Amino acid sequence: MSKRILSCMQPTSHLHLGNYLGALRNWVNLQDEPGSECLYGVVDLHAITQPYERDGLAQATREIAAAYIAGGIDPAKSAIFVQSAVPAHSELMWLLATMAQMGKLERMTQFKDKAGKNAERAGLGLFSYPVLMAADILLYKATHVPVGDDQKQHLELSRELASTFNTRFGVEHFVQPEPYIMGLATRVMSLADGTKKMSKSDPSEKSRINLTDDADTIRKKIKKAQTDAEPLPANVEGLEGRAGADNLVTIYAALAAVSKADVLKGREGQGWGDFKTELADLAVAHLEPITSRMRELLADPAQIDAVLRAGNEKANAIAEKTLSETRDIMGFWG
Ligand code: TYM
User: Fold this and answer.
1) Is the distance from the beta carbon of residue 138 to the nearest atom of ligand 1 less than 6 Å?
2) Cα–Cα nearest to 329, from 140, 159, 137, 168
3) Which of 53, 85, 127, 184 has the most CB atoms at less than 10 Å from its CB?
């Protein structure tokens, strides 16, 4: 095995187009790379770092697993596991927390965004979120971590913690994970404001396309998406300083798997109305099969649970071995 690929998503709410284009679609392609082993987690321990519905957590976890499978993750090729079902994540997190510096955690932009103005009242779990994420990755000695652009800083911290540990104990134990930030849509922006990231936590439903949206909703959201008074430009330079316009062209390019320059070819002066109709057709053609497969899967939760149990078993076997080696290196009794 030359590569071990690991990535995860939080079961916080429905996945959106950013999660799909920035992460999931790349995960699907990676599972067919010869010599690579893939593990994809649903990180429910991360999801509880912010207020959540107790009664919806298990179902949200199943929904993310269903989205993985519907999006193309094949459980016969890749393990799909639940973070809280692999206790080693929490234990390794504690061990790494003893080596993580407060100053570095304070500089994490995701913490600053999520804690908002009232950082004093933020929970310790939210503050230490990146340490748990480092544990998720280092536990599997992952070589590559395919994520969207917003996770870069967290990945950097994981790399630092791996090297801090290795230096502290004079070992080559943890692997330095490489971020895999792939494709055109590494940062899909909000449909309502092209300067903001498309995000699950945006209060405006119009800002994102969810994987669970039906065709009609997708069309309506794209129709309302932010653009500007100018028509489509002749080339990519013509998108500069036009965040909303650039976002729609980027989404089109990512869905069609062509470059932005190719999308713009022959469209100089085209109005946004026509372009949006074409973009909506493309988005619906891509997402509809995923949405309907997700619905089928969710109608049979026992089947999803069986996939998760098999994935948990595989994840636990790898994770327990790394944890036991880590405990030995650190000098614990037993
Ligand atoms: P989460 O659940 O917020 O997002 C899941 C994945 O989707 C990507 N993403 C985007 N990509 C492009 N454009 C966007 N607008 C956009 N929004 C989200 C994210 O970069 C991510 O790849 N901290 C992680 C979860 C995590 C994790 C891990 C990831 C926990 N442990 C270990 C990798 C490895 C997160 O919040 O993802």
Assistant:
1) no
2) 168
3) 184
